[in-house]
């Protein structure tokens, strides 16, 4: 029988706490749960009011992985769920809005992925995202140069951007937006990806075509589509080591000369939070820097 623990007044069954999920470092399931408990205060605001998709890897990154958007079987009745519109018909998805729900989901061993909209307005984007994905031998170092170009281009339109590592090879660029549909934001993001490619043809590609990607940074603008999701800030990733999609400063981006400078594991995050707080906190408000997406035409 799995042990029972009480989290924020909820009875939660946890299991296999000594199971090694990341063999490269010996990082266990218990450490996964501990990590999510430590970062809950900064992670939950980025999850709240957004339906969550799960990439589950219960036997570690080297085992079976499966991606699910529907409410998993056995979900406790106290975990919030919501009906979400989809082109193939509405679906019910999980919404992680408190510590108990977060720890229940962490016990399933998951990456957390969220869309660029909230439940109150599923057709309207409140964020724009660019996933900068390097094709070898390019690395996150080349992604940083592209990120700086995109930051300045977005700033010219009154939109302030923030960066985080993907937790894999690349970099994510995010900004708060308002007053536009997901389709309009996606079209605007594509336009900027094309502009980046024209400005830096040797470094940037706006298409996913793998045969063209060697040595270039693919600027993936498509994750702004209403049906798409992106790794949530602070989520662990299903990699060989317990890497994290970690917010970074623009100084770190500008000064990056080696991929190791922007590689962060679970154990690195508490100290970064003490030093910087949540670098993506501005995305949680509609204050200065939240931009209006110009019409594409």
UniProtKB/TrEMBL annotation:
Keywords linked to the UniProt accession: Ligase
Organism: Streptomyces doudnae
Domain of life: Bacteria
Gene3D superfamilies: DNA primase, PRIM domain
EC number(s) given by UniProt: 6.5.1.1
Enzyme class: ligase
Protein name (database record): Non-homologous end-joining DNA ligase
Family matches, as PANTHER family: BIFUNCTIONAL NON-HOMOLOGOUS END JOINING PROTEIN LIGD
Domain DNA ligase D polymerase: 28-279
GO molecular function annotation: DNA ligase (ATP) activity
